[in-house]
Amino acid sequence: MGTFTVGLVPHPTKSVLDSVEILRGWTTRSQAHLLAMTADAARVGEGVELVDERTFRDRVTVVVALGGDGTMLGAMRLVAERPVPVLGVNYGNVGFLVEVEPRDLPEALDRIGEKEFSLEAHHALEVTHTSSGFENTYLAFNDASVARRPGEGVVTADLVLDDTPYGFYKADAIVASTPAGSTAYNYAAGGPILSPAVAAVVVTPVAPMSGIDRSVVLGPSELLRFEIGDGTHSAALEVDGRVVGDVSAGCVVALTLRRDAGQVIRLDADRHGRKGRLKLSLLDLPLREDQLLELVPSDVRARFRERAERAHGIAGIAHDDDTAVTGISPVR
């Protein structure tokens, strides 16, 4: 495994040094290399080779993202030119992309070394923003949206499909989502959930006032374009939740689906699917995770905790009763 190279992408603020130490030990024993980007030097500590972004992309065999779904998305965008497998280690809260908890990382690395895993392909949206003659392109694995800024009126835009006008929007925001991203902003806005097996794009208006007032599902080869109208004074272009540009009248936002732009490591696809369905169902409840836990009898909570301690050892318990019962870390 001498040419096997693990790329490390840490959470921007949380301490992940316990997992970095596990990665250092595993790569040393496996005669593999461990890389991180120079910009992350302070977060990964000693014993990790630091390289620039281009070298990182060119050399890694697999990427380990230590964080939540946001860190995962950043790691996937980073290597999208050469979509190597990405493993997510959960340092967030409710994650749909992350695969393992920090305590399970040693076993996960052993299975990766033995090639005992599957890959889940993820589509992405190529987003091209044209304004005043300047053009910028971004990649969104979840969604891209044009959203009004507070106090700045509404978003008006014509929807054009393959150069054919389809209709118009007048709304607080317009969200275009991939199948994976359909469980996020799109779902919160009342849009449908798309199966990950489908290559499609769903477009959903947020608080529509006139024009198209429901979701539109588009095929993978259709070129989608929002031509921003005169009624838009100041709006933001958001890509996977990050504001990347300003949008106003005359701007054009074009989107097309890039198939299989990312590869996510799954160690147990069935288990991940069950957890995902559970997390999605919990999002529909008008309760926080800690409030939901109060509905579980204390004796049941105690039994779950005892089972977790027997399975992982008391020292390996990284979360509290909430996680032992629900599998979801509470919001701190």
UniProtKB/TrEMBL annotation:
The GO molecular function terms of this record are: ATP binding; metal ion binding; NAD binding; NAD+ kinase activity
Keyword Heme assigned to the entry: answer is: no
Q: Which InterPro entries match?
A: ATP-NAD_kinase_N, ATP-NAD_kinase_PpnK-typ_C, NAD/diacylglycerol_kinase_sf, NADK
> Which residues are responsible for catalysis?
69 (proton acceptor)
Which metal ions or organic cofactors does this protein require, according to UniProt?
a divalent metal cation
Q: Name one GO biological process term.
A: NADP+ biosynthetic process
User: Which function does this protein serve?
Assistant: Involved in the regulation of the intracellular balance of NAD and NADP, and is a key enzyme in the biosynthesis of NADP. Catalyzes specifically the phosphorylation on 2'-hydroxyl of the adenosine moiety of NAD to yield NADP.
The UniProt entry, under PANTHER family, shows: NAD KINASE
Q: Which HAMAP family match?
A: NAD_kinase
Q: What is this protein called?
A: NAD kinase
Q: Which organism is it from?
A: Frigoribacterium faeni
Its taxonomic path starts at:
Bacteria, Bacillati, Actinomycetota, Actinomycetes, Micrococcales
